[in-house]
Hints:
This protein has 6 helices and 4 strands. The mean pLDDT is about 90. It is mostly helical. A hairpin with a 5-residue loop joins strand 1 (about 90) and strand 2. The strands form 2 sheets. The protein has a two-stranded antiparallel ribbon. Strands 3-4 form a two-stranded antiparallel ribbon. The protein has helices at about 15-20, 25-35, 45-65, 75-85, 110-125, 155-170, and strands at about 90, 100, 130, 140. It is about 50% helix and about 10% strand. About 30% of the residues are buried. Helix 3 (about 45-65) packs across helix 4 (about 75-85). Bound molecules: zinc ion (ZN).
Amino acid sequence: LPEHRQGTPSAYVTLESFLWRDFCDSAEWREWARKHALGSAADGVPPQFRLAMGLQRALRALELENNGGPADHGAAAQLNALIARFKVQPRLSPAGEISVAAAHLGNSPVARLLIMAVEAMQSGTWRRFKLCREPTCSASFYDASKSGTKIWCSMALCGSRDKMRRLRQRRRG
Ligand SMILES: [Zn+2]
């Protein structure tokens, strides 16, 4: 299944990629962060890698919640710990616009990804980040549909797999 789908706002393509990808090791993470111009992932590796994987786990738990899954209070606690660690806070521009910034370790790729996620949550876009409801898939995807009610990452693959299973269950029952 593709990493990017049509309709993902350009501001969230990097976050979409981060949540979709399964990183094998810190080298792969470093290379990915470099490719996405997220600053020097070489600083503090492997702690940076560990923090990145913690961020990914917590955000994916919330993505599951966005798709009808159970609430995960540990995920919010983990994000709050990262928010405190990087001192993520609102910043006011002279024009009176609020943005989110990290006062601490601003060039950390983990801090930058965290800021993207917090901005998505603050703007209401976050509810469109989901984990596919097909258990054999569970891929992260951005729901760009008008209604924002997609539950599978791909109707052609995941949606039809689910339909087949329900059909089989009905025949058995
Ligand atoms: Zn899927």
